[in-house]
């Protein structure tokens, strides 16, 4: 059987698409390894329209429940799309769990992932001191010395998560000034546990069985310096998850999928994209959901014209 | 069957794992490594991990919550 539409992703964009596709009776399959997108780990989301306050976990559950309440949308969870290729009727997809699907149209709602440092030792010590979820793991570093890499809002929030637990927190920023929210900056600067190091270019993390420290180039003095640490919290931004279609659709220098803002269509006929994987200007749950609805309505028109 | 899960109160992947256990009626022991220093040391010793969740299924250690891997270990 050939599906009319495959939705790739289970964040706000993917789920919004699933709900609208069901209402339009488009024969749809949605593939995701988890629901909720990046907000899953947020302690409190206060700008999801219609809800004053909701945890990322509960938001993810609400999205999943809403999708599962739809008739006619097949859901492949705990799975990921590993390959998309063009065929006569549209596209053929392969998944990590070994499924092969044929579809007429594709909606990419793959979002973005945390950017890695890309330095020696990072991969080796991931989970052994290198941390990407400060909300999850900050309490483990009670009475330890840690570093947060990244001086934007995410970095400042990681420092804030660590304040009740860590003994000492270095905040490393590559440029000459912190970038995040001024109010949070003031709070952090006022705390004697925190030492801010500007112009610090992280070069390596090292250790034995677990992490022992970090080496950085101090741009101020030009010297290589070393910090003894139990944890390194990496908070340097996000990268769009567009690798899956890098040979199929047009992608900009930032790795974002280029889309038509009216329809969310990509450069390849039959493929649409919505949410944080696209070149849309703003990264917001509500925008991802809205853009995705646009995409599904346009896909509906496209499928009807084809008939 | 012995299932232990090392958690922190703020870790959503831990909640997902616990929901999964509840859904499949799997009895488990939860150890909060944010408040229990002994449990934290035990987790680090067993797994060399400084991250939660760590899940111990009959001595087999899983880092993070991978639903398929856990389901397999629990013969679900």
TrEMBL record, chain A:
Alphabetical list of InterPro entries matching this protein: FAD/NAD-bd_sf (IPR036188), FAD/NAD-binding_dom (IPR023753), Ferredoxin-NADP_redctase_2 (IPR050097), Pyr_nucl-diS_OxRdtase_2_AS (IPR008255)
Highest taxon in the source lineage: Bacteria
Keywords recorded for this protein, A-Z: Disulfide bond, FAD, Flavoprotein, Oxidoreductase, Redox-active center
Entry annotated with the keyword Oxidoreductase: yes
Pfam family, one: Pyr_redox_2
Keyword Transmembrane helix among UniProt keywords: no
Domain FAD/NAD(P)-binding: 3-282
GO molecular function annotations of the record: oxidoreductase activity, acting on a sulfur group of donors, NAD(P) as acceptor
PANTHER family xref list: THIOREDOXIN REDUCTASE 1-RELATED-RELATED (PTHR48105)
Name the record gives this protein: NADH oxidase
Higher taxonomy: Bacteria, Candidatus Joergenseniibacteriota
From TrEMBL, chain B:
SUPFAM superfamilies on file: Thioredoxin-like (SSF52833)
Annotated CDD domains: NrdH (cd02976)
Glutaredoxin domain: residues covered: 3-61
GO biological process: cell redox homeostasis
MF terms (GO), sorted A to Z: electron transfer activity
Cleaved signal peptide residues: none
Annotated Pfam families: Glutaredoxin
Gene3D superfamilies, alphabetized: Glutaredoxin
Protein name: Glutaredoxin-like protein, YruB-family
Organism: Candidatus Jorgensenbacteria bacterium GW2011_GWA1_48_11
Phylogenetic classification of the source organism: Bacteria, Candidatus Joergenseniibacteriota
């Amino acid at each position: 059987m050939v599906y009319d539409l495959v939705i790739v992703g289970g964040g706000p964009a993917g789920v919004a698409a699933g709900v609208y596709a069901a209402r339009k009776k488009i024969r749809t399959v949605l593939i995701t390894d988890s629901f909720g997108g990046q907000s899953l780990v947020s302690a409190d989301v206060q700008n999801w329209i219609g809800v004053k306050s909701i945890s990322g976990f509960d938001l993810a559950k609400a999205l999943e429940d809403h999708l599962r309440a739809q008739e006619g949308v097949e859901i492949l969870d705990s799975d990921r799309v590993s390959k998309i290729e063009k065929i006569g009727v549209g596209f053929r997809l392969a998944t990590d769990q070994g499924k092969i699907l044929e579809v007429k149209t594709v909606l990419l709602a793959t979002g973005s992932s945390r950017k890695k440092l890309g330095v020696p030792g990072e991969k080796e010590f991931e989970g052994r001191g290198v941390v990407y979820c400060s909300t999850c793991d900050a309490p483990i570093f009670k009475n330890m010395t840690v570093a947060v890499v990244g001086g934007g809002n995410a970095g400042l929030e990681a420092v804030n998560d660590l304040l009740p637990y860590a003994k000492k927190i270095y905040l490393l920023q590559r440029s000459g000034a912190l970038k995040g929210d001024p109010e949070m900056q003031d709070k952090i600067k006022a705390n004697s546990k925190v030492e801010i190091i500007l112009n610090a270019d992280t070069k390596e993390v090292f250790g034995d069985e677990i992490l022992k420290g970090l080496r950085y180039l101090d741009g101020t003095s030009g010297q290589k310096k070393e910090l003894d640490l139990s944890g390194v919290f990496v908070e340097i931004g996000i990268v769009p998850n567009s690798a899956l279609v890098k040979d199929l659709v047009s992608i900009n220098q930032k790795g974002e999928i280029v889309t038509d803002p009216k329809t969310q269509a990509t450069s390849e006929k039959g493929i649409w994209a919505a949410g944080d994987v696209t070149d849309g200007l703003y990264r917001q749950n509500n925008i991802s959901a809205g853009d995705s609805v646009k995409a599904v309505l346009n896909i509906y028109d496209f499928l009807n014209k084809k008939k | 069957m012995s299932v232990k899960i090392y958690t922190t109160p703020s870790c959503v992947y831990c909640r997902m794992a616990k929901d999964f256990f509840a859904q499949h009626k799997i009895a488990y022991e939860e150890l909060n490594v944010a408040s229990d220093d002994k449990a934290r040391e035990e987790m680090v010793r067993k797994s060399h991990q400084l991250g939660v969740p760590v899940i111990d299924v009959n001595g087999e250690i899983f880092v993070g919550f991978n639903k398929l891997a856990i389901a397999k270990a629990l013969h679900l």
